[in-house]
Amino acid sequence: MAYIFPGKIFPSALNAYIQCPFKFKCHNDKDVKAEFIENPESFVGKIVHLALENFFDIKKVPINERKDQDIGQMIRHLWARVPKSSWSSACWSAKERKELFGSTEQEKAFGLKAIAMIKNYISKADLSIVPLSLEDWMQCSVGEFVIAGKIDRIDQDSESSISVWDYKTGKLPFYDSIEKIIKDDPQIPIYAIIASKLYPFAKKIKAGLIYIQYSKIYDIIWTKDELEEVENEIIKTIREAKDNTDFSPRINNLCPWCDYKNICPDKDKIKEKDSKIEEVIW
Fold first, then answer.
1. Are strands 133-142 and 216-223 parallel, antiparallel or unpaired?
2. Are the beta carbons of 231 and 142 closer than 8 angstroms?
3. pLDDT tens digits, residue range 180-197?
4. 133 exposed, middle or buried (CB, 10 Å; 0-12, 13-18, 19+)?
5. Domain locations in the chain?
6. 75 Cβ neighbours under 8 A, 6+ residues apart
7. Cα–Cα distance for residue pair 233/230, rounded to 1 Å
8. What would the pLDDT profile of 75-109 be if each residue is shown by its tens digit?
C-alpha cells in the first residue's frame, strides 16, 4: 500500500482511526482510496450540499427571494452539473448517471427525494440567516499537526458567538445526544476548533449536525477554555495514530459497511449484515 501519514488530518480520517487502525491506513492510501465507487446516496448528498450552499448564498438567492425559490428547478439545474470528483470539473453525463442509479426512473426517484428533503428543511429553517461561511475548506494548527475540513455553514449568532453546522442527508444517528455522537466521531469538535481559531471574536461556539431529511438538530456549546481541553484530546488521538506502525484491524459493528472489508486481513471474522424484515404497514 502507498500509505503516507497525512500532512493534514481530516475528521473522516481520524474517525476511521477511532473505528479501526486498518481502515485509517486504507483511508490514507491513495491507491486504495482511488477504488472508491460513487453510489446514489453519495450523489444525492452532494446535491443537497450544493443546493443549500446556493440557497443561503445571498449573491445567488437574495434573502427576500428565499421563500419563493423554486427548489425543484434548482435541484434539476445542479443535478446535471455535479462534478465527478473534487479534483476535476468534468460532470456526470446522462448515460453515466443512468448507470449509477440503475435506470432513468430510479434517477428521477432519487431526484424527487432530494427535492422533498430540501423543501422539508427550509420550511422549518430560519430564512433570514446570512452565513459567515458556506462550504469552505478551512484549516488550522493544533500542536504539531494541521486539522482541516470542508465546513458546510458557519453563522454569526452575536458579537461574541458563532454556530458551526454540518449537514447530514442520511438516517438519524443511533445515539440520541450530541455528547454520545462526538465521543465516537471527532468531526464536530474538529470543525468547532477550526472555526474558533479562524473567528477569534467568538467566545462561545455552538456546533452541531443538521439532519436535513428530518429537520433534526443535535448541537453543543463550548467556551474557548472548554475547546482547549477538547483540542488536547484531539492532539492525543492524532499522535497515537501517527505512532501506530501496526494498524491491526479492529473488528466492530460497522465492519459490514466498511469500504475496505474485502482487503481486510480479518475479513473472515466480519459478520455479514443481518437481513432486515420490513413488515407491511397497511
1. unpaired
2. yes
3. 999 889 999 999 999 999
4. middle
5. 11-33+130-243, 40-122
6. 47, 51, 111, 114, 115, 118
7. 5
8. 999 999 998 876 667 899 999 999 999 999 999 99
